[in-house]
């Protein structure tokens, strides 16, 4: 069982929800990212999403885009991020999800990425621009490495499509709270509640928002 599943099971037994926090790796430096990871864990975070900076983050809003650009300017690479996570694993077992775009993984090499990510201590991956139909090869490698492959479901996703995505996901499902670019509009809580309740009818996976 992955650290992600163990965490959700533990929270479920206590009837608690998961607090999942996001950091862009390398902003302002990987040394500080490591310090922030440990500080967030100490402050009560249950799972961490570590954003891999990319030069063309089309799905992200201006705040994360700016963070990615700052990280890239300091020379942050996927290799360096994995090394930083390896260092974190010496002192922490908090579940870590790598969150980002397919291009850095493709350049790194899918199989090598999955193997090295697992060795570093990565628990899950979420590739925002890689739909399930295009993910089988990478998914094969992450499955073999014991890494959960997390997929997105949007407010515009139909019921049939949502079921297909849920059937292929592992770890948890990520429900996008708004339509459009991240951080550009306030989510409508009632709509989110309705959507999550519908998803609960088709999957036993935890649902993150």
Write a structural description.
- Helix 4 packs parallel to helix 6 and helix 6 runs parallel beside helix 7 (136-145).
- A seven-stranded parallel β-sheet has the order 1-2-3-4-5-6-7.
- Strand 5, helix 8 and strand 6 (173-175) form a beta-alpha-beta unit.
- It is globular.
- It is 47% helix and 14% strand.
- The protein has helices spanning 3-13, 30-43, 62-73, 78-88, 102-108, 110-120, 136-145, 159-168, 189-200, and strands at residues 20-24, 47-51, 96-100, 124-127, 148-153, 173-175, 207-208.
- The chain has nine helices and seven strands; from the N terminus they run H-E-H-E-H-H-E-H-H-E-H-E-H-E-H-E.
- The mean pLDDT is 96.
- It has one domain (3-150): TIM Barrel.
- It is of the alpha/beta class and 209 residues long.
**Strand order within the widest beta sheet:** 1-2-3-4-5-6-7
Number of strands: 7
Compute the number of helices: 9
Helix fraction, binned, reads: 40-55%
Largest sheet: 7 strands, parallel
CATH topology label:
TIM Barrel
CATH class: Alpha Beta
Radius of gyration, Cα only, in angstroms?
16 Å
